[in-house]
Amino acid sequence: MTSLEAFLYSVAIVFAAKTFAWVVQLRTRNGGLVDSVWAVTLGGLAGFYAVVGDAPLVLRWAVGAMGGVWGLRLGVHLFLRNWGKPEDWRYAKFRKDWGAHADRNMFWFFQFQNLFTLMLSASAFLPLVFRDDAPPVACYMAAIAIWVTSVVGEGIADAQLERFRADPANKGEVCRVGLWRWSRHPNYFFECLHWFAYVVLAWGMPWGWVTLGAPLVMAFLLMKMSGVPLMEAEMIRRKPGYAEYVRQTSALIPLPPRA
């Protein structure tokens, strides 16, 4: 299978996955499932590319395992976070604003997200599984170190936030515990860091710089589009102490709090 054929198959895969999420939300009236489906599908593409690629086997196994485990962990976390809960406020707002056209618009909104899914997978995974040679052993070691740091770090940040939210005494309060004292979005920081693992594996490959598109796309999505802007506007509206938290705490990279 050529890289172009693999990419065309991935288009069909993500379309089917988001259509499944849309059908489920027709019954549950909860669009939050799409976040979990997005993560699992993106991780699944890493495994799919690893199977159909023709790069050295060790490299394909590395890409498939790193992308697959990352997507599975994040997907399960998002699923459990939303399971049995009211619809995420973002999707609830869309549903309210769209009114009678909510179901139609939700379908196309889900499919629109596939543009970024394909951009991430095509820049991070696809070039690696079709490269002619393998990167040096040092690149494997560096990539694994970055991957472990990012996945473990994001897991810790997610767990700290969930524990904070689970305590009734913290209702309406701003989470400033653990990593959240040093960054307003430590989970997003580690999410962006994760994609640099594939950049390292592209060392010595012609057009290897293409893999830089993955962390750049993810940073754009989180910091400029669907992540931080929407979330922080809502948090400032709902939580009186959040504006002060914004002034004192780094937006992304963990840094000591400002006075």
TrEMBL record:
One of the record's GO cellular component terms: membrane
Keywords attached to this entry: Membrane, Transmembrane, Transmembrane helix
Residue ranges of coiled coil: none
Residues spanning the membrane: 6-24, 36-52, 58-80, 106-128, 134-157
UniProt key word Transmembrane helix: yes
Protein's UniProt keywords contain Kinase: no
Pfam (any one): DUF1295
Database matches in Gene3D superfamilies: 1.20.120.1630
Cross-referenced InterPro entries: UstE-like
Name this polypeptide is given: Steroid 5-alpha reductase family enzyme
Annotated organism of origin: Panacagrimonas perspica
The organism's taxonomic lineage, starting at the top: Bacteria, Pseudomonadati, Pseudomonadota, Gammaproteobacteria, Nevskiales
